[in-house]
Design goal:
By secondary structure, the chain is an alpha+beta fold. It has helices at residues 15-25, 40-49, 66-76, 91-100, 114-151, 170-176, 180-183, 207-214, 259-277, 296-302, 306-309, 314-317, 324-335, 381-424, 429-454, 463-477, 498-519, 562-574, and strands at 4-11, 30-37, 54-58, 82-86, 104-107, 155-160, 165-168, 218-225, 231-242, 248-257, 281-286, 291-294, 340-347, 353-364, 370-379, 460-461, 485-491, 496-497, 525-533, 538-545, 578-582, 587-594.
C-alpha cells in the first residue's frame, strides 16, 4: 500500500549520477515522480509548472550552479526543501550552502545517506507547512470571530462566571450609548437594569444563573421604556461558552431590537382580524394549489368548514363550471406574476351553484419570490340573477323594437305601392311628378327603417350607407342610365344618431333629387357628397354638382318648390342647423346641423 507520493526535481548534468540519485531516493512505501534537467531555463520552468516537493541539486554544472538555483527557489518557492549533492566540498562551501538555505548537503561518495536526508527534509517541510497553516487558521479564526462580534447588528456582551462584562461589540456601544471603558469590568446587572445583584425577570430566576446551572441556552423577550418614553422590545439570547476542558467559562448575551417585528405582528393581527370579518371570501393557496388559509366568509358562502378545506385543492373542492385544465392554466399564469379577474360559478358543499366575482393575484415572500396565490371572491349570485333578468327583458324589448321597425317599413312599402298605383292612373305629367316626388320621400324614409330592422346597432347609423342607398333609389326611380351620373362620396368616421336619421335622409333625398333632375340636362355628370364632423361635433353635409346651376333670381328660402322648402324646414326647424347655397361653377349646398 502506497502511503504517499512525492514530486522530485533533480538538477544534474551527468546522466549516470542522476540515475544513481533517483535510485537512492526510492522507498517502497512511497511513490515518486521525477523530473531531471541540467540547465537554468528548464529548471525554472519545472519549479513553476512541475511544483516539486523537494529539489536535489548538484553543486556545479557546466552552465549553472546549485547556489544560483537555491537562491531562485528561496525567492520564488521558499517552501520547497533544497538538498545540495556534490562530489567534493570543503567546510566553508558546506557552511555557505546551509547559510543560503539548503536543508542538507550530500557527498556523492556517501549516497546511502540520501534517502534518510530526503525523508527527513520532506517530513520537516510538511510539519512546517502544517504549523504555518495552523497558525494562519488560528489567526484567521480569531480575526473571523472578532469581526463577527464587531460587525453583528445584534448587541453582544461576553460575561464571566462572576457576572463581569469582559467584552462587548460595536453595536452594543452604539445602541446603548456607552463607551467601552464604561462597560468592561462592570457587572452585567449594573448596565441597563442598575440592579445591586443578579437581576430577576418578573420574579423568575436570573437568566444567566439558569444558563450556568443547566448549560442550556435561555431565550426571553423584554420591553423597556427609553428616556424619551418610547417602548422598545428586545429579544434576548443567553448561551454558554465552553473552554478547551469542556467547562463553561463565559456566557454570551445577545440583544436584538424586535420593536418593529412586534409592531408588524400587531399590524398583521389587525389585518387578519379585518380579513376574518370581511364579507368577501379570501383563500390563500401555495404554489401547488393547496389551500393554506380561508376566512369565515368563505365557509359561509361555500358551506365547507375550515377543517374540510385546509390542505385540499380548490380544483377538487369546487366542481363548478371552470374546467380543471382551465383552472390549472389560470393558476400557472398567476404564478408567473400575472393578476386575473373572472366571473364563474362554483358549487356549494350541499350541491347548489353560486356565482362569484373572483380576483386572483400572486403573493411573495420576504425575498420577493412568488410563494402562492391569494384569491378574493364576492358572492354575486343575486346580481347575476338580476342581470340575467335584465338581459332577458332587453332581448324581449329588442325583438319588439325590431318588430315595430319591420311593420313601419312594411307600411312605408305599402305607401310606395299605393303612390305607384296612383301614378299609373294619373294622366297629367305635373301630377305624376308630384306623386313621384312623394314616392321618393317615402322611399328615403323606408331606407332608414330597413337599416334599423337589419342592423344590430339601431342607435348609430352609417351616413355612407344612407347616401349610397338614396342615390341608387333615385337613379332607378328617375330612370337615370347606369354610369351617366356618378356619385363621388367622402365621409368621415362618424355616425348619424337615430333621432337625426329620418330628417337627415329626407334632406339628402331632396338635394340629390335636385341634382339628378336639373343639374345635367344632357344626362352626364358627377354629384359630389362630403359628410364630416366639425369642431362643435355637428354634422356637415356638402352636396355639389358641376351642372348648369340654379337661376340667380331664385330666393331659396322663399322658393315655391316643395323640395327646397322641405330642406330649410328640416335643417333649421327640426335639426336646429343652417343651410347655405353657392352657385360658382355649378351648385353647392352646405347643411350644418346637430347630431342629436
Amino acid at each position: 500500500q502506497i502511503n504517499k507520493s512525492y514530486r522530485i526535481l533533480v538538477l544534474e548534468d551527468v546522466a549516470e549520477d542522476a540515475e544513481l540519485i533517483m535510485n537512492e531516493v526510492l522507498d517502497p512505501d512511497f511513490e515518486y515522480e521525477f523530473r531531471q534537467t541540467d540547465n537554468e531555463y528548464e529548471f525554472k520552468l519545472f519549479v513553476k509548472q512541475f511544483k516539486p516537493d523537494i529539489i536535489l541539486s548538484d553543486y556545479r554544472l557546466p552552465d549553472y550552479d546549485g547556489i544560483s538555483a537555491l537562491k531562485y527557489v528561496l525567492e520564488h518557492a521558499p517552501g520547497i526543501p533544497f538538498i545540495v549533492i556534490t562530489g567534493s566540498i570543503n567546510e566553508e562551501t558546506a557552511v555557505n550552502c546551509m547559510k543560503w538555505g539548503a536543508v542538507d548537503y550530500i557527498l556523492k561518495d556517501k549516497m546511502s545517506r540520501l534517502r534518510h536526508a530526503v525523508q527527513s527534509a520532506l517530513e520537516n517541510a510538511e510539519m512546517r507547512k502544517e504549523k504555518e497553516e495552523s497558525d494562519k487558521a488560528l489567526v484567521k479564526r480569531e480575526s473571523y470571530y472578532r469581526n463577527i462580534l464587531k460587525y453583528m447588528h445584534d448587541d453582544i456582551m461576553i460575561i464571566s462566571l462572576d457576572y463581569i462584562i469582559t467584552d462587548v461589540n460595536s453595536a452594543f456601544l452604539s445602541v446603548e450609548g456607552y463607551k467601552r471603558e464604561d462597560v468592561i469590568g462592570k457587572h452585567c446587572y449594573d448596565i441597563g437594569d442598575n440592579y445591586a445583584s443578579p437581576c430577576t425577570m418578573r420574579g423568575s430566576e436570573c437568566p444567566m444563573k439558569q444558563v450556568l446551572d443547566t448549560g442550556e441556552t435561555v431565550r426571553f423577550q423584554k420591553s423597556m421604556i427609553t428616556e424619551n418614553g418610547k417602548t422598545v422590545w428586545n429579544d434576548i439570547l443567553m448561551s454558554p461558552l465552553y473552554n478547551e476542558n469542556g467547562s463553561i467559562s463565559h456566557v454570551i448575551e445577545s440583544y436584538r431590537d424586535i420593536t418593529e417585528l412586534v409592531q408588524v405582528k400587531e399590524s398583521n393581527s389587525r389585518l387578519l382580524s379585518a380579513v376574518e370579518q370581511s364579507s368577501a371570501a379570501t383563500i390563500m393557496q401555495d404554489t401547488e394549489g393547496k389551500v393554506e388559509y380561508v376566512n369565515n366568509a368563505f365557509t359561509v358562502i361555500s358551506g365547507y368548514t375550515k377543517e374540510e378545506i385546509l390542505g385540499k385543492s380548490m380544483i377538487t373542492v369546487n366542481s363548478g363550471e371552470l374546467p380543471e385544465k382551465e383552472r390549472e392554466d389560470l393558476y400557472r399564469q398567476v404564478l408567473n406574476g400575472e393578476s386575473r379577474r373572472m366571473i364563474f360559478h362554483n358549487r356549494k358543499k350541499e350541491g347548489s351553484d353560486y356565482w362569484v366575482s373572483a380576483a386572483m393575484a400572486p403573493f411573495t415572500d420576504t425575498e420577493g419570490k412568488i410563494s402562492g396565490i391569494v384569491e378574493v371572491q364576492d358572492d354575486i349570485t343575486d346580481r347575476m340573477k338580476d342581470r340575467n333578468q335584465i338581459e332577458a327583458n332587453l332581448k324581449e324589448k329588442e325583438l319588439l323594437l325590431h318588430e315595430i321597425f319591420h311593420r313601419v317599413n312594411n307600411n312605408l312599402q305599402i305607401m310606395i305601392s299605393l303612390l305607384n298605383m296612383q301614378m299609373e292612373g294619373t294622366v297629367k305629367s305635373s301630377e305624376r311628378e308630384v306623386l313621384k316626388a312623394a314616392q321618393t320621400r317615402v322611399a328615403a324614409m323606408a331606407i332608414i327603417e330597413n337599416m334599423l330592422y337589419q342592423e344590430q346597432d339601431i342607435v348609430h347609423i352609417s351616413p355612407h350607407y344612407i347616401v349610397e342607398s338614396i342615390f341608387s333609389m333615385l337613379a332607378e326611380s328617375l330612370h337615370i342610365p347606369y354610369g351617366s351620373v356618378t356619385l363621388q362620396l367622402e365621409t368621415d368616421d362618424c355616425a348619424v344618431e337615430l333621432s337625426t336619421a329620418q330628417p337627415w335622409a329626407l334632406i339628402i333625398n331632396e338635394l340629390l333629387s335636385n341634382c339628378l333632375k336639373h343639374a345635367y340636362p344632357e344626362g352626364k355628370g358627377i354629384v359630389s357628397v362630403k359628410i364630416s364632423v366639425n369642431h362643435s361635433q355637428e354634422l356637415v353635409l356638402l352636396v355639389r354638382d358641376t351642372g348648369i346651376g340654379m337661376a340667380e333670381t331664385i330666393e331659396h328660402r322663399e322658393s315655391d318648390t316643395t323640395g327646397l322648402r322641405l330642406v330649410y324646414l328640416l335643417a333649421e326647424g327640426q335639426l336646429g342647423g343652417s343651410v347655405s347655397f353657392s352657385k360658382d361653377g355649378g351648385t353647392s349646398v352646405t347643411v350644418i346641423c346637430k347630431n342629436i
